[in-house]
Structure formats: structure tokens, C-alpha cells
């Protein structure tokens, strides 16, 4: 299979480069700069990412360019462009006129394939403190901005194209076309990596590898595990055994409704009500990290107990997706623990199972497209991301049955009103909608990445009728995002917020106040715990 390799020097938008290439129906893989794969015939080109480092730093990322240069086409972006210039005898210096944000690019060489079909002047996005002050002797200047003369250059003999701006971000008006030109015109890649071809090859591969083996999969009700289950089921049928655990921390009526949908999809699924066990494990626990660990530990216990009932199982299936794989191969080594993730860590070794991860090459939007192609109903595919620990980390402080019940009712009101409220936002941001043009009407739910309610560990004074109340506060959260790594709060309509607040306070006993969270990530996180 043809592929493009992206070498990551630590840029925050390296994944965006990958998404842009995948949008062209060309397969690509992202590798840390210090783990360059062997350049085999199916690799048609290499893209070097940006970086938070300066090429002049003592500890700046470095690679052996001899493995790449002259063998295959190279597209060097920002740090990559500076690194090529620095290594090949040019000069990179700290710029007195730093350039962050939008800039006007002027193409100097009109016949360059990288700029085919692009206007002579266009807007691009700059983000760098250093500048290339002198090009290598064998390089040719091909584009400039008012503040950066050497904004783009080419080294003809080595088939290198270098851009000191970021074509991958949407702020660069024709950046997508530049990447397309590199992938299709310069690397000669075919646009044959499609959702249908992925399903066909993956199903075939699963059949060949698993044969008659039994597989266990823990369903969560989320998009990733659901698509993984249907894909594997298509290959091996009832040899796939799915376990859906009700931890008591799901949304209102979610366990019953989702289990019915799974059965209607022909999945071999076992539903397990372990809500009391989870509540017991959470009794007295208030620290967010300890909560996650308690929930994770209890899940493993319940899952293992059920899995042992499935005799001769040899595989454990997981809904791992490509961002998980990338993040586990961090450029800077293991990331600091912001929060523990709820997964089945430890189970494969403990139960002597081999791992199968059919979605590990896909981004989230590609997982959704695969789900649609597999015939999974929209309400499952279009669901907002939901944290593994569920409502356990949306009940701040100790998790009790009383607070869970209050939160479930408030959350149900919020989400249901959101699904029924039409808006004309420019585009859907939760990764699923066939209406994404400016002016299209879509539901608020489809127009955002994630939303949910949180119950705070404080009570406040209120007045209901002629009586003084002292009850809980509900906080509402709604964010837009592309991948969950960064997020911005949604400016929900005031009349919508007013209706939600009124409905919750009138219908949910124990609540007398509703607030809306207007924090972005960073510095906040999407979840409160």
C-alpha cells in the first residue's frame, strides 16, 4: 500500500498534517523523528513537521537526512524547512521581526508543482521565532512574505520543497492544495485509500489471522468500541463475544437503550449490571485520580470475571485509534500524567490474551466514516465523546447514589434539549453531519464536539415559592474541538441556556442553580476531573 511518512519533531499540529493527507485518500503514518522507518518502495514521500524547538538549540531534534534526501520527495514544514537550510549550509537566526499569525504569501516561481493551481498571492499561517536568513547555495527561492523573504524554497536536485509556514492549518487559504500537490503531483500517489478499501482489507486480514479463534471485546457504548465490534463481527461473526458493563455511571437509561441497539445490530453481547460494585468502590473517594483508579480497577475485576466464562478465548479486542498510538510514542518521551485513562490495561497479560486493534490506523473522523459505511445507526456514530469513568468524574467530590441520580436527570434534560434545538453554526464539529455548509440548519448536538452536565460539591441558597432552599448547583459544559486535545467553549444561545436552566431547576429535585462553563482547553480541561 502506498504511503506518506510524517516525521514528528514535536509540533502541536503534526496530527493535522496526517489528517490532511488522509483527506486526499492517501494513507500516511506518523513517526517520532528519532524512529525513522526503513524507506521501502511503498513509501512515496516524507513530510517533516514543525517543532517548538529552534534548530540552534543544543537539544534540538536531529535526523540523519542521508536516509531521506535524494531517495524520495521531501516536504519540510516550518522547523523542517529551517532544519534543511541549517544542515545544508544556509543560515537560521533568531528573527528581530518574529512572525506569528496570518501573512500574505507571494509566489515568485509560478511554474513550481507545489504551487500548481494556487493564486500568486494568498494568506498563510506563520508560527516561528527563527527565520532562514540565507538559503543553501543549491536552493532556489520560490515564495516570500513581506516580513520573511525565504518563506518557501526548493532544492531541485534532491526533490526537496521547504515551507516556513504551516500549510496544514485551515488558516492557510491554499495550504490543503499545496499538500495535495506534494502528495499527488510530486509523490505520484494514487487516491485509493478509502473507507471501503479499509473495511475490505481489514476484514480479510482479521479472517486470515483469527480463523476460528474466539475474541472478547469490552463495549462502552462509544463510537470506537462500537465500530471495532461491528468490523470484527463482520469477519468472524459469533466468535466475537462482547461485554457491556453497567458501572452505574452511564447516562440516564443508557445501559438499556444501548444494549438493545447492540442486539439489533446482530452483535453477540452480554450485559452486566455491576453498578452497586462500582458505587461501593467509590465510597469515600474524593480525589479525581483515585476515582479513576478505583473505577478502572473495578472494571478489570468485573470484566475478568465475565471473560472467564468464555472458554478458549485467545484475543482481546480494543478500540484503540491512531491518536492513541501517536501519543504513546511521544517525541519527548512519556507524557506527564494529567489523568489516568479508563481502559483494560493489565488484562491481556493477566488473562494470557493477544491484542487485536482493528482501528489503530484511523483518526476519529475516519472511525465515524467507517461506522457509517458499516451501516451503524447515526445515534451511535454521532454520539459525543464520553469519558471512560463516565459520570463518576462529573460528580465532583464523593460519588453517591443521590448525586448520581440528580446528575443523570439534569444531564438528560440538557442533552435532549440540545438535540432538539436547531442552529445555523458554520459547520458541525462533532465529526458527523452531512450538513456542514455555512447557513445549514443542524441541531446544537450535531454542531459541537462534546457537552455534559456536572454536579458541584457545594450547595447554595435559593428561593422556591415562599420557601428558602439550600440545594446543589449544576454546571453545564459544551466545547468545540477537532480531536479533544484542544477545545474552545461554545457560545450557546442565551434563550437555549435560559430554557435548560429553567427545565433543570423546575424538574430536578435537589437543584436550585445552573451555571455555564466558559473555559477553554488549555488552560482548563474538557472534563472537570
Q: What does this protein look like?
A:
There is one protein chain. The protein is of the alpha/beta class. It folds into three domains: 3-186, Rossmann fold (3-Layer(aba) Sandwich); 195-381, Rossmann fold; 395-516, GMP Synthetase, Chain A, domain 3 (2-Layer Sandwich), CATH 3.30.300.10. Helices cover 30% and strands 25% of the residues. The protein contains 15 helices and 20 strands. The protein has helices at 14-23, 79-87, 175-186, 195-210, 223-236, 254-264, 275-282, 288-307, 322-327, 347-350, 364-373, 378-381, 401-419, 444-447, 494-507, and strands at residues 3-8, 28-32, 43-48, 74-77, 91-107, 121-134, 140-144, 152-155, 160-163, 214-219, 240-246, 269-273, 313-317, 354-356, 422-423, 442-443, 450-464, 467-480, 488-489, 511-516. The strands form four sheets. A nine-stranded mixed sheet has the order 2-1-3-4-9-8-7-5-6, with helices on both faces. A five-stranded parallel sheet has the order 12-11-10-13-14, with helices on both faces. Helix 4 packs across helix 5, helix 5 (223-236) packs across helix 11 and helix 13 packs antiparallel against helix 15. The protein starts with a strand and ends in a 13-residue tail after the last strand.
